[in-house]
Design brief:
There is one protein chain. The protein has about 160 residues and is an alpha/beta fold. Helix content is about 50%, strand content about 20%. A five-stranded parallel beta sheet has the order 2-3-1-4-5, with helices on both faces. The protein is globular.
Length: about 160
């Protein structure tokens, strides 16, 4: 196809607002949102109890997600992926989706302070009590240890939000 879709994906610490921003970006770009949480809940209900569980099941859905997203991009559909792109390895996976389909991309980097993330996580616990088990400062600190801000050497089309 001469006009493939565009892929939008997000980098930001837990609680930075990636899911909220993904909805806004989708509206502004006439894009389909594919949310990791939705896929994990649908395919592995009740099985994700720890961060290690998340890592395991997230890896299991990636091949299916890859085929699905590349098919949509090849048809000219813009796709917003509400998945974390918080490490160099994760971002390389997203850019490979684009390289293989000759699609463009935008990485939205939500550069938000730890304090703001923690405040938003606390608010999310109130608004979504089912997430209270995972939306804690301890989990935030555990997950943040793995966070890698994007760098110029990754050759990404970055939209930075502060």
């Amino acid at each position: 196809m001469s006009n493939p879709g565009k892929l939008f994906f997000f980098c930001g610490k837990m609680g930075a607002g990636k899911s909220t921003r993904s909805g806004l970006v989708a509206q502004d770009n006439n894009a389909l949102v594919i949310a990791e949480d939705d896929w994990l809940t649908a395919h592995y209900p009740g099985l994700i109890q720890t961060f290690d569980d998340y890592i395991k099941y997230s890896a299991l859905i990636r091949p299916f997600i890859k085929n699905h997203v590349q098919g949509l991009l090849s048809l000219g559909v813009n796709v917003v992926m509400d998945f974390p792109a918080n490490t160099v390895k994760q971002r390389a996976w997203f850019t490979s989706l684009c390289t293989e389909t000759h699609s463009k991309h935008e990485l939205w980097y939500l550069d938000v302070s730890d304090e703001q993330c923690l405040a938003q996580i606390a608010q999310r616990r109130v608004e979504q009590p089912q997430r209270a088990k995972f939306d804690t400062e301890a989990v935030f600190r555990q997950v943040t240890r793995y966070f890698e801000a994007p760098t110029d050497s990754e050759n990404l089309n970055i939209v930075r939000v502060t």
